[in-house]
Predict the structure.
Amino acid sequence: MQLITVGTVAFDSIETPFGKADRVVGGAATFISLAASHYVKKMGLVSVVGDDFPKSMLDELRVRGVDLLGLEVLKGKESFYWSGKYHYDMNTRDTLETRLNVLLELDPKLPEAYRSAPYVMLGNLDPKVQLKVIEQMEVQPALVVLDTMNFWMDSAMPALREVISRVDILTINDAEARQLSGEHSLVKAANKILAMGPKYLVVKKGEHGALLFGEDRVFFAPALPLEDIIDPTGAGDTFAGGFIGYLAHTQDHSFDNLKRAIITGSALASFACEKFGTERLLTLTRDEIDERIRQFVDLVDFDIELVEE
Ligand code: AMP
């Protein structure tokens, strides 16, 4: 197994200023696995669903190389459910409801083949569960990436701090970076967060791109200006999936390669916004991703000669 992902596999109800979708498939681990599948061929998924979860979606994951031995299906139980409503800027949203359902019973037991995976993606989920996954790894992974959100900062901070101290890279959004550090300046926030343990911090800024901090360096990647944003749900997870997928494929964790991984993640995230839920990711091809990466290169390419005073 090259990469294992833990995270929610869920139903989402989403409302944006331009439309609505009721009980579509979502969940952090779903978006991460779909995105990473373009770069990694042997992946494991650690999560739990109820038997209300569509088998067709499990098949979609399987055909993309996602092993589901680590996915528990609980009979007669309901899958994790989240609903949210986006503001007009589509960059901010309110959570309307979070029903943990089966998530309350998740006590992950990693299948033997998962315990020596070199890449571990701790997708957004209860940090106590994320810890249990790290603790079951028998071989020290080459890279552990953690994604989390304000929900867990509000409800499980001690466990979250423990996970943060044990990962190589943390990805969170700008508001979460401020909440976690108590600093408004993102530079100061990054310094405080890096002192908590991770070697690198990725700050996601939605339609304003992403920042990479680490090794006393900073890199900024824009988000591709899209003509229509239908639904940004899962963009952060899709970013994380593309990011770790690219790193697992290239096996190079230098700052310069992390920059490439950020562009890859950003390209994938831009597709996730084009349709509700996972719909766009299900038809996405590698050629389309590569073409979009070229657009990113064009977007930031410029030449300048400094003029004399
Ligand atoms: P993103 O838009 O990338 O932040 O991720 C949205 C996804 O996260 C949705 O598909 C939800 O099912 C999932 N989600 C929402 N709240 C939580 C939570 N508290 N823990 C884990 N996953 C969540």
About this structure: Residues 10 and 26 are 5 Å apart (CA to CA). The chain has a mean pLDDT of 96. The longest strand covers residues 19-26. The chain has ten helices and 14 strands.
